[in-house]
Design brief:
Blueprint: E1 4-8, H1 12-23, E2 27-32, H2 35-43, E3 47-50, H3 54-60, E4 63-66, H4 75-80, E5 87-89, H5 99-104, E6 109-111, H6 121-127
Parallel strand pairs: 1-2, 1-4, 2-3, 4-5, 5-6
């Protein structure tokens, strides 16, 4: 059975992450803010999911990668996530979830702050 990755956001970093995860043989779900991003994800062979259904996508994910600089992983999404599901945070502040809340549940997470614009892209790239 293939592992499932959930990538939130389908901008530059989200597109790069999904390409790499697919190359590793993972089934990739993309939660995006806009219809255009979801259409682009679908055209690239990813499974699009509206942000309104992020909790259902979290329930299916073996790994979650956030690239949206907003709190998109709320209480319902985190509650639906299995405790052993790693969350990789690649977004700039504000990040996609409140790490203190997730950590208090005994969950694993990796936080790698992104930089604004094109500055120091190696920071985000090295996390990918």
């Amino acid at each position: 059975m293939r592992e499932t990755a959930l990538v939130t956001g389908y901008g530059r970093i989200g597109q790069e992450m999904t390409a790499r995860l697919c190359a590793l043989g993972m089934f990739v779900i993309v939660c995006a803010r806009s219809e255009e991003q979801m259409r682009m994800a679908h055209a690239a062979g990813r499974i699009p999911c509206p942000l309104a259904q992020i909790a259902a996508a979290c329930r299916q994910a073996d790994v979650i990668v956030n690239t949206i600089p907003a709190h998109v992983l709320g209480d319902a999404a985190l509650a639906a996530t299995a405790r052993d599901t790693p969350i990789i945070e690649l977004a700039s502040a504000p990040t996609g979830w409140k790490c203190r809340r997730r950590s208090s549940w005994g969950c694993r997470s990796a936080w790698r702050a992104a930089c604004r614009g094109g500055m120091r892209r190696w920071t985000r790239g090295s996390a990918v």
